[in-house]
Specification:
The complex is a heterodimer. By secondary structure, chain A is of the alpha+beta class. In chain A, about 55% of the residues lie in helices and about 10% in strands. Chain A has a four-stranded mixed sheet with strand order 1-3-4-7, covered by helices on one side. Chain A has a three-stranded antiparallel sheet with strand order 2-6-5, with no helix packed on it. In chain A, strand 5 and strand 6 form a beta hairpin. In chain A, helix 4 packs antiparallel against helix 7, helix 5 packs antiparallel against helix 6 and helix 6 packs antiparallel against helix 9. Chain B is α+β, with helices and mostly antiparallel strands. Chain B folds into three domains: about 110 residues, Acyl-CoA dehydrogenase/oxidase, N-terminal domain (Butyryl-Coa Dehydrogenase, subunit A, domain 1, Orthogonal Bundle), CATH 1.10.540.10; about 110 residues, Beta Barrel (Butyryl-CoA Dehydrogenase, subunit A, domain 2), CATH 2.40.110; about 120 residues, Butyryl-CoA Dehydrogenase, subunit A, domain 3, CATH 1.20.140.10. In chain B, the strands form two sheets. A four-stranded mixed sheet of chain B has the order 1-4-5-8, covered by helices on one side. A four-stranded antiparallel sheet of chain B has the order 2-3-7-6, with no helix packed on it. Chain B starts with 14 loop residues before the first helix and ends with a helix. The relative contact order of chain B is 0.13. The chains are: A alpha+beta, B alpha+beta. Chains A and B meet through helix 6, helix 7, helix 8, helix 10 and helix 11 of A and helix 1, helix 9, helix 10, helix 11 and helix 13 of B. Bound molecules: flavin-adenine dinucleotide. Flavin-adenine dinucleotide binds next to strand 1, strand 7 and helix 13 of chain B.
Chain lengths: ~325, ~375
């Protein structure tokens, strides 16, 4: 998708989310209330099928577009399982099965399905096999930090089944999910930073805004560094997936998940420190974001999982290859 | 994010050829570089090396051909820089000229200055030092007191500069001096001017200062009625602060701000195969290095487009410094005397010591974070 088109799409989604999303909706989510109205509006915009090729009824977006959209979703703490639904539809279509309307729950290996109880159907991804299962999933419970419904995919008889093309590789579900979570982390970090800067400029102690204290400024500047690092890592991962396919972008996606996971920790620590007691309350919206930061850094492979992958590959290749391998990832270096 | 943008860039098409040339060159030149050379990297000073770099057209690459430059792009120059820094090449003899003094002279210098200096920077003959800091003026640079008084045909300089890296080995220093008293203490940025100073001028005493690594890396410069001809004033008298801060923005932008300790990771990898805990940590470091490279490239791209990404550069330097300082420390947890080759341990020790300077030179961590905080809207 061209930069212009991407900007138009992001504008639309931003408008949708800033009108409808917010702490009340997130809290309702956590009580188990399905965001029906928002989901319908997202469907009206064609978002759940955005990654599906146009020939199969989708919008034909790429992973880079998706990462930008997911970052935006993260800015609003992702109040609907749109990312998961987009991935489910994308992988199903890539495996040659026409996706159907409604929310498609994503079941990667044996991980729980977010909002599986509301899924019109389930997309089970096992290695290179993608199966469409009848929905909804069996109610199970709520996911750890985010308290979103997380349900069990009942292994039934698939309605349809297909195999992913080689560019997706045997880990497509994990890779796409890791990209989703990295991008959402990058987005949510932007919001908590902005919230905290606002708070620091209004909360007064010792007769002045706490943002005037150097100790606070230094913390927030460090936070801004991590926010920027996360955004670049997620963007780079999306771009690499467009260029090399999901499997070919394993390095960038793994890097993004590691770096964004680290940034999620550093960022959450700082924004809570600056908000102090008020940020520790249920009433304040901060935790709606920071709990999701902690959720997303764990989901689809924690930092250590992906870091080990990168590290093992580098150790096997040895020192002489370290720098050249990093550069080989560049695009079009050999072309004149 | 809050007014800071990092648009992803690509290195230019055809860079593979340039890299191949550089790698062959650096492999040959670097045959005998040990832990000390690589650990000191861009503070390292080797004129013979710099002349060879100049011969190949890798200094002043982006400058106009009329002055001996190669008229290439900022991103091509970036490729050259990162290849050199990734192996810890001792670039100090041409580095400052290429990064700061050359661009400054091209931007603000007289035609005569351009003809005089630029071709000799390009050939790797002329080495520059940076004369900003003084004994009582570090972060608060504008409080500096070394003064230049107008005399017939030029200026008479008195005072002291300190921490001037490699001044005892360089030819010229680009300095910031006070040419008129500040009208009041809050207007200390006024009345400053930039001068090129011949480091062999009479009245100038250069005293090397031993650093904690045991090297004579930086110096104290004492000016005692040093005469500087009018022809060595850079830009406008009284506009030194604006000129120098623009220069600092460029200084902060480069890949040297995250790559300083990467040669240690390269050197340690083979040994780390024997360490079961290494894979995860190595992966974390590489993930960050790759991301920081993209940020650094984004800033280089903005420079190429003619923007002045001063704040973005400050942020990249800050996160880059954190990384390059953390790297030797993370590896310390994994290296094992007895198993790890002595030269790797030696490099780790050197980088532990040299690493302290990463977050000082070119603006301390606290000053950079102050710049970022202001950008965030904190006052
Ligand atoms: C290896 C090395 C090479 C160098 N090479 C050169 C060179 O070639 N040319 C040159 O001109 N200079 C050079 N420098 C000097 C360098 O630019 C200064 O060290 C730096 O600007 C800091 O000044 P200072 O050391 O006087 O520390 P100070 O400014 O005295 O600072 C001391 C501490 O106080 C903190 N601090 C100061 N002001 C504030 C504030 N407003 N808010 C919060 N914290 C503050 C600083 O961050 C620091 O932690 C070099 C330094 C090193 C270490």
């Amino acid at each position: 998708m061209s930069d212009d088109l991407r900007a138009i799409l992001l504008d639309q989604v931003e408008k949708l989310l800033s009108d409808a999303a917010g702490p009340d909706l997130l809290r309702a989510n956590e009580r188990g209330e399905w965001p029906a109205a928002l989901w319908e509006e997202a469907e009206a915009l064609g978002l759940p099928l955005a990654l599906v090729p146009e020939a199969m009824g989708g919008a034909g977006l790429g992973w880079g577009d998706a990462a930008a959209l997911w970052q935006l979703l993260g800015r609003h703490a992702s109040p609907l399982p749109l990312g998961e639904g987009m991935i489910a539809a994308a992988l199903l279509a890539a495996a040659g099965v026409a996706p159907r309307a409604g929310y498609l729950g994503l079941a990667v290996d044996t991980a729980p399905v977010v909002w599986g109880r509301r899924a019109a159907a389930l997309v089970q991804v096992m290695g290179e096999t993608v199966a469409l299962q009848p929905g909804p999933a069996t109610r199970q419970g709520r996911a750890g930090f985010a308290r979103e419904p997380a349900d069990a995919a009942a292994p039934g008889v698939p309605v349809a089944e297909g195999r992913l093309p080689p560019a997706y590789g045997p880990e497509a579900g994990m890779l796409a999910g890791a990209l989703l979570n990295a991008a959402r982390i990058a987005g949510a970090l932007e919001t908590v930073l902005a919230m905290t800067v606002d708070y620091a400029n209004t909360r007064k102690q010792f007769g002045r805004p706490i943002g005037g204290f150097q100790a606070v400024q230094q913390l927030l500047a460090r936070c801004a560094g991590e926010v920027a690092v996360a955004g670049v890592a997620a963007g780079q991962a999306g771009r690499a997936a467009d260029r090399h396919g999901l499997a070919g972008a394993t390095f960038e996606i793994a890097s993004a998940k590691v770096v964004c996971g680290e940034a999620a920790h550093a960022g959450a620590e700082i924004v809570h420190q600056v908000h102090a007691a008020i940020g520790f309350t249920d009433d304040h919206a901060l935790h709606l974001f920071t709990r999701r930061l902690w959720e997303w850094r764990d989901g689809f492979g924690a930092e250590r999982v992906w870091a080990r992958r990168i590290g093992e590959a580098a150790l096997a290749r040895g020192g002489a290859a370290l720098w050249p391998d990093l550069i080989t990832r560049d695009h079009g270096e050999g072309e004149q | 994010m809050v007014g800071l943008r990092f648009d992803l860039r690509d290195t230019p098409p055809g860079s593979a050829t340039l890299r191949a040339e550089l790698r062959a060159f650096l492999a040959e030149q670097g045959k005998d570089w040990g832990p000390m050379e690589r650990g000191y990297s861009w503070m390292g000073f080797d004129r013979a090396f710099s002349r060879e770099v100049g011969k190949r057209g890798w200094i002043g690459m982006t400058w106009p051909e009329a002055y001996g430059g190669a008229g290439r792009t900022a991103l091509e120059r970036y490729v050259v820089l990162e290849e050199m820094l990734a192996v810890g090449a001792p670039v100090g003899a041409h580095w400052i000229g290429d990064r700061q003094s050359g661009p400054l002279i091209l931007r603000l210098g007289t035609e005569e200055q351009r003809r005089e200096f630029i071709p000799r920077i390009v050939s790797g003959e002329l080495a520059f030092a940076i004369g900003l800091s003084e004994p009582d003026s570090g972060s608060d640079l504008a409080s500096l007191r070394t003064r230049a008084e107008k005399v017939p045909g030029g200026w008479k300089v008195n005072g002291r500069k300190v921490w001037t890296t490699n001044a005892h080995r360089c030819d010229f220093a680009i300095t910031l001096l006070r040419t008129s008293p500040a009208p009041d203490p809050r207007a200390k940025h006024q009345g400053l001017s930039q001068f090129l100073i011949d480091l062999r001028a009479s009245g100038l005493t250069i005293r090397p200062i031993l650093d904690l690594v045991g090297e004579e890396g930086f110096n104290e410069l004492t000016f005692d009625d040093v005469f500087v001809p009018d022809s060595l004033v850079v830009g406008e008298i009284g506009k030194g602060w604006e000129q120098a801060t623009a220069e600092l923005a460029i200084e902060r932008a480069g890949p040297e701000r995250y790559l300083s300790s990467l040669p240690l990771l390269t050197a340690a990898l083979e040994d780390l195969r024997a360490e079961p805990a290494a894979a995860e940590m190595v992966g974390r470091l590489i993930a960050r290095a790759g991301t920081l490279r993209q940020m650094s490239l984004a800033v280089a791209g903005m420079l190429q487009d003619g923007q002045t990404p001063a704040r973005e550069a400050a942020l990249v330097k800050d996160v880059g410094n954190d990384f390059e300082q953390a790297l030797p420390e993370r590896l310390r947890d994994l290296l094992m005397p007895g198993r790890t080759p002595p030269e790797v341990l030696e490099m780790q020790r050197i980088m532990t010591m040299v690493g302290r300077s990463y977050s000082l030179r070119g603006g301390t961590r606290e000053i950079l974070r102050g710049i970022i905080a202001r950008q965030l809207g904190l006052r």
